[in-house]
Recover the amino acids of this structure.
């Protein structure tokens, strides 16, 4: 596809190309239709209304079943079909480069689009990797400028972000930005910037997100139908970086939801994050109940798109202290998605199993290190778990990791840390921001050191929940009844309970048993 540069006159001739195409379609001139699709497929894809272009392509196929590579890709892009019906065959030429021996680039692209649009982003991401491995080298002077390499890089990025591999997605969007931009297809460059900004606004660096949005705004606008979708993406970026929930809710209410498209998981993320910041948890619950009924293309438990609703429910339950329900929802999410892993570490810290929280928080650093917001949250969990154990020295060492960020914390980022951790940070971490009282923070929901059950106390509690008598528990643990009674008094005090039944009820709500 597009082995020769055709960008020379595309920008000035977009209107002419589209008019010629529509006129040929109206005249039933399928040969001209086919020629224009092969020569200017992306221009037609993004300037002709999708429904109309699909009707024309279908009519052309009906008249002559021999469908060209480009026409087949566009037909699938506009209307997902069953993979088994794809006419892939042994194709030698790929998109802007030669295909691999095992599977052509065209085949990878077709499979990727088909699987992604049907709600299987992780399966689609495997073909995204095939496209990445076979991508044409970015030549500093003669990079392919027919739009296809840039289009493919953007589509890879979208697939990877829906699969939950946000670091890989940012790499794909970076490649798209470095690719030659075809006159008339400037929206592809803007799309790479806007989608990357949304990842950073949601999981990464708000400052980088703002810079990417500014660069997108400076890119010339076109008459493509894609521009409306990109405007919605930029609006979602604004919501995710907005600190005032009233403003965030207003922006969400003004969104043209018909243009959200495949960014719907990020729309859901914004829908629960904004009221959660305002502690409006009942509103979150009602909204999630409504959103869960919508027929989004997703496979539950696969990728970010198949996990966002479960993660939203888990977040809401964590916020309200219903930790058992939170665990249930987290178990439904894809365990490879970075947000799932961070929330799992937080949940372990909240339930008092601080050693598990520490192990998880240390293990996931490789997945959070390039996503500033997730990395800050991870460090706050790690430091909080150490502090809950009474290990202030290790908590300070964890907080020192904040100093490895490319710039100091801002006031909002510091709210990820509890008041005690902020005090430690101000005392021991260079350039830690000095803040007035902060009302919103995830880590203030951690049990404090006086409420944290020891490993032995957790063991006693869980044996009690199994129905064992005091004598049976003392025999199992090889302790005297007096020692056991002392441990039970400590358990009841930390749980704020005055009886066995109340202790077990509160322990269950915290997910301890």
């Amino acid at each position: 596809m597009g082995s020769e540069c055709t960008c020379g006159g595309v920008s000035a001739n977009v209107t002419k190309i589209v008019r010629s195409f529509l006129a040929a379609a109206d005249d039933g001139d399928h040969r001209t239709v086919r020629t224009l699709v092969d020569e200017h497929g992306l221009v037609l894809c993004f300037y002709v209304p999708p429904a109309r272009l699909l009707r024309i392509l279908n009519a052309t196929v009906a008249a002559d079943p021999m469908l060209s590579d480009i026409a087949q890709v566009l037909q699938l892009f506009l209307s997902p079909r069953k993979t088994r019906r794809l006419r892939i065959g042994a194709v030698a030429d790929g998109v802007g480069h030669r295909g691999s021996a095992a599977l052509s680039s065209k085949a990878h692209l077709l499979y990727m689009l088909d699987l992604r649009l049907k709600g299987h982003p992780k399966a689609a991401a495997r073909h995204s990797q095939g496209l990445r491995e076979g991508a044409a080298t970015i030549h500093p002077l003669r990079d392919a400028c027919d739009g296809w390499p840039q289009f493919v890089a953007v589509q890879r990025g979208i697939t990877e972000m829906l699969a939950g591999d946000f670091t890989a997605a940012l790499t794909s969007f970076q490649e798209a930005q470095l690719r030659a931009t075809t006159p008339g297809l400037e929206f592809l460059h803007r799309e790479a910037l806007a989608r990357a900004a949304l990842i950073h606004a949601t999981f990464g660096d708000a400052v980088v997100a703002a810079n990417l949005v500014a660069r997108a705004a400076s890119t010339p606008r076109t008459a493509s139908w894609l521009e409306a979708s990109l405007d919605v993406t930029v609006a979602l970026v604004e919501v995710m970086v907005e600190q005032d929930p009233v403003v965030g809710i207003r922006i969400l209410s003004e969104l043209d939801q018909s243009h959200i498209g495949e960014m719907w998981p990020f729309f859901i993320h914004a829908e629960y994050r904004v009221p959660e910041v305002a502690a409006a948890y009942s509103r979150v619950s009602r909204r999630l109940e409504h959103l869960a009924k919508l027929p989004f293309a997703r496979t539950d438990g696969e990728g970010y798109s198949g996990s966002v609703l479960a993660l939203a429910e888990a977040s809401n339950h964590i916020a309200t202290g219903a930790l058992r329900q939170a665990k249930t929802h987290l178990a439904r999410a894809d365990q490879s998605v970075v947000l799932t892993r961070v929330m799992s570490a937080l949940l372990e810290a909240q339930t008092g199993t601080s050693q598990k929280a520490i192990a998880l928080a240390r293990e996931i650093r490789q997945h959070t290190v390039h996503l500033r917001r997730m990395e800050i949250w991870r460090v706050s969990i790690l430091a909080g778990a150490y502090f809950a154990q009474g290990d202030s020295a290790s908590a300070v060492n964890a907080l020192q990791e904040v100093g490895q960020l490319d710039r100091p914390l801002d006031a909002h980022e510091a709210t990820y840390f509890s008041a005690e951790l902020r005090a430690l940070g101000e005392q021991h971490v260079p350039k830690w921001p000095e803040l007035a009282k902060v009302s919103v923070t995830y880590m203030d929901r951690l049990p404090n050191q006086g409420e944290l059950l020891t490993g032995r106390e957790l063991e006693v509690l869980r044996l009690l929940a199994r129905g064992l008598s005091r004598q049976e528990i003392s025999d199992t643990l090889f302790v005297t009844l007096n020692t056991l009674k002392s441990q039970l008094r400590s358990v009841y005090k930390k749980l704020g309970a005055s009886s066995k039944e109340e202790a077990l009820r509160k322990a269950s709500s915290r997910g301890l048993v």
Observations:
- The longest helix spans residues 10-27.
- The chain has 26 helices and no strands.
